[in-house]
């Protein structure tokens, strides 16, 4: 019988997490299925081994003539962010339906809620990263998406002087994901970066003597 490759939310719920109590209230139906070690997976012609979030090898499940693939493992291979909400029994693939502001849990010596520093071009953003130290310097901070999101929408503005060197890097792999020039004339610039599978981000800028870097934390978000 020809096998079909299907990823379902039911399979996703079972394979995304094994936390105690995750099935409470779920509409589960017990079935007899088989771990199928004979199935091999290729992506763009290259053999791959599906693995869970801890790096352990996982196998497809065959039930009633249909083969079910572990959704997290397949999403990781294809570079698609995946998360599971146990409260709503919802698997989310790719970008989230709503953005999550980077302000939550943000830490830096240049983090501020001072309206004099969180206001840019007449708008108060309430929370911001504002480095106006007043010397030629490296300005940087870390973000921790923890592999949960597909995209980062980061808003940045150069104040006083252009920023010729600005980049966003996958900190674990030391790979630059985006390099930009941020000019004063750009105003508040939105930089969009694919961060699927990325746990830690390093954001870096070279700031001139009379310049400053402004990043609103409430309107910069993961999705």
From TrEMBL:
It comes from the Bacteria. Residues 1-24 form the signal peptide. Keywords: Signal. The keyword Signal applies. Residues 58-103 form the Copper amine oxidase-like N-terminal domain. The keyword Signal applies. SUPFAM superfamilies: Copper amine oxidase, domain N. Pfam families: Cu_amine_oxidN1. This is Copper amine oxidase-like N-terminal domain-containing protein.
């Amino acid at each position: 019988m020809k096998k079909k490759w299907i990823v379902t939310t039911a399979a996703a719920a079972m394979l995304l997490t094994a936390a105690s109590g995750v099935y409470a209230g779920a509409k589960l139906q017990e079935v007899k299925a088989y771990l199928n070690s004979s199935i091999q997976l290729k992506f763009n012609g290259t053999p791959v081994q599906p693995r869970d979030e801890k790096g352990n090898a996982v196998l497809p499940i065959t039930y009633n003539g249909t083969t079910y693939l572990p959704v997290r493992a397949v999403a990781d291979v294809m570079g698609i962010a995946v998360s599971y909400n146990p409260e709503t029994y919802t698997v989310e693939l790719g970008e989230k339906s709503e953005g999550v502001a980077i302000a939550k849990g943000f830490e830096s010596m240049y983090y501020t809620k001072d309206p004099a520093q969180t206001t840019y071009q007449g708008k108060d953003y309430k929370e911001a990263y504002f480095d106006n130290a007043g010397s030629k310097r490296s300005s940087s901070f870390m973000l921790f998406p923890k592999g949960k999101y597909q995209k980062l929408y980061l808003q940045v503005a150069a104040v006083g002087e252009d920023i010729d060197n600005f980049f966003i890097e996958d900190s674990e792999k030391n790979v630059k994901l985006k390099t930009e020039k941020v000019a004063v004339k750009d105003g508040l610039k939105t930089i969009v970066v694919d961060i699927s599978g990325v746990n830690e981000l390093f954001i870096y800028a070279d700031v001139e003597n009379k310049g400053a870097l402004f990043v609103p934390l409430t309107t910069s978000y993961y999705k």
